[in-house]
Amino acid sequence: MEYTTPPSYGSTVVNVGGIAKDGEIICAGATNSAEHTQIISDPENNWPEPSSVKFSWKGKTQAGEDVHGELGSELGRRLDRVDVLAQVPAIVKTLVGGVVGTKPYIYQYAPERKPELRLKIDGKEMAEEGVLFSEAVFIS
Fold it and tell me: What does the alpha-carbon distance between residue 98 and residue 102 come to, in Å, rounded to a whole number?
């Protein structure tokens, strides 16, 4: 999970993530990244909707071995686009959007093509296909 704090908190990029396999945590921490490598402008709200992503993890195993993981994928057709304020009365939505400048949307994806996680643990490389579910949330 990666997010950017509001300007009142320094516009800091925060990332927390981990890699698990066979029920065990391989590594977890905050030295990771989530990048939208390709975007398209959503014509409904002008958010930069991701069409391709890259996730990177960097950390250590419990035994102290270096871990580096990387996964890149085209997202394909989105599963859903959720207008978070869709269920509130129009007057409230207009007020929140106009006064506060907030127009929160959630984009959800599960690519049909299984992406490959490339993992390097203490110099030993491996790759594994899996299922990706990805969300991109835009607030203001």
Answer: 8
- CA 97 from chain centre, in angstroms, equals 24
pLDDT over 90 percentage in the chain: 76
> Would the pLDDT of 116 be above 80?
yes
Q: Answer yes or no: pTM beyond 0.90.
A: no
Complete DSSP assignment for 80-102: EEEETTTTS-HHHHHHIIIII--
- Res. 95: pLDDT tops 80: no
The owner of tokens 């300007």 is: 7
Q: Tell me the per-residue pLDDT of 15-35, one tens digit each, with 9 for 90 and over.
A: 999 999 889 999 999 999 999
Neighbours of 73 (CB within 10 A): 19
Report the alpha-carbon distance of residue 92 to residue 130 in Å, rounded: 41
Residue 78, Cβ neighbours under 10 Å: how many? 16
DSSP string over 56-78: EEEEE-TT--EEEEEEEEE--S-
Could you tell me if 138 and 105 are in contact, meaning their C-beta atoms sit under 8 angstroms apart? Answer: yes
134: phi then psi, degrees, rounded to nearest 5: -130, 140
